[in-house]
Amino acid sequence: MDDAEAERDAQFRGGIPEVYQRLLVPMIFEEPAESLAQVVADLAPGEVVETAAGTGALTVALLRSCPGARITATDLNQPMLDAAGAAVPNEVVTWQQADALDLPFDDRAFDVVACQFGAMFFPDRVLGYREAARVLRPGGSLVFNVWDRIETSEVPWVIHAALVTATPEHPVDFLSRTPHGYFHVPRIRDDLEEAGMPGATIRAVDGTSRTTPAEAARAFCQGTPLRVAIEHHETLTVDDATAIAEDALTRHFGPGPIEAPTRWIEVVAKTGG
Q1: In whole angstroms, what is the distance from residue 215 CA to residue 219 CA?
Q2: Domain range spanning residue 223?
Q3: Do residues 52 and 72 touch, judged by C-beta distance below 8 A?
Q4: Residue 204 is part of a domain; what is its CATH number?
Q5: Which of 124, 132, 200, 247 could be disulfide-bonded to 142 (CB atoms 3.0-4.6 Å)?
Q6: Integer-rounded Cα radius of gyration of the chain
Q7: Does the pLDDT of residue 8 top 50, yes or no?
Q8: CB neighbours of 29 closer than 8 A, spacing ≥ 6?
Q9: How far is CA 33 from CA 51, 71, 122, 221, in A?
Q10: Who's near 119: CB < 8 A, 6+ residues apart?
């Protein structure tokens, strides 16, 4: 993956935030957010900073699970924060544009750094983990999740397979390459150890995606950076990709409501102290 491709993979712009919030959050993000927020709540933090907050799925769950905590929610993409601020009007949350690899906070400022499905997009994950360790107090925790391999999440797997089949010369492989591309547990451990946080607790969690073929096709093809990859493709259009995805999902699951398995990986890494 070249630098231009990596930059496109992290873009949440244009109409993406609205579709992301309306369709993708209830489909695949709310359940993992509740699970990760409970992990954070068990740590009883007073100060939490969330990186790669997106439109606030984890933020909402943290507000419920950690009612006494002060939460600073950050994201690299201001349009996502704008959508989050509109969806989550709460005086307890401070919304701030920030790069997870260069956080604008003092050393030892937080008890927990939380990140839902953001580490896969970091251009330098070790640097991102080091930044998390820097802003954590002694004994603080970096709590994050990443998607497991794409075959364990049936809806994106069906969409990915259909789009790759439709683009054999230049496959549109964003879903397997980026959101589902950072699942190898030894690699995650190595990255954390290099960042100074050895001995992480890592577990796989199974969940369920609920959607319809039309909503899932639109959510993934128009509400994620997959849309940007499609827009840069030589032959594929967003409308065509959405139709291909919907047809594949209908053939695989049938035309009615979908309940499909999904799996993610939860990580808790502590600083010394």
Answers
A1: 6
A2: 3-270
A3: no
A4: 3.40.50.150
A5: 132
A6: 18
A7: no
A8: 54, 57, 58, 116, 117
A9: 13, 15, 19, 22
A10: 52, 125, 128, 144, 146, 182
Domain count, the chain: 1
Instruction: Locate 196 and state its tokens.
Output: 């100074």
Helix/strand/coil (H/E/C) assignment for every residue in 145-211: EEECCHHHCHHHHHHHHHHHHHCCCCCCCHHHHCCCCCCCHHHHHHHHHHCCCCCCEEEEEEEEEEE
Nearest to 43 by CA among 272, 268, 202: 268
Reported pTM: 0.93
Residues 33/8, Cβ–Cβ less than 8 Å? no
Using DSSP's 3-state secondary structure scheme, residue 100 falls into coil
* pLDDT tens track for 65-114: 999 999 999 999 898 898 888 878 777 899 999 999 999 999 999 999 99
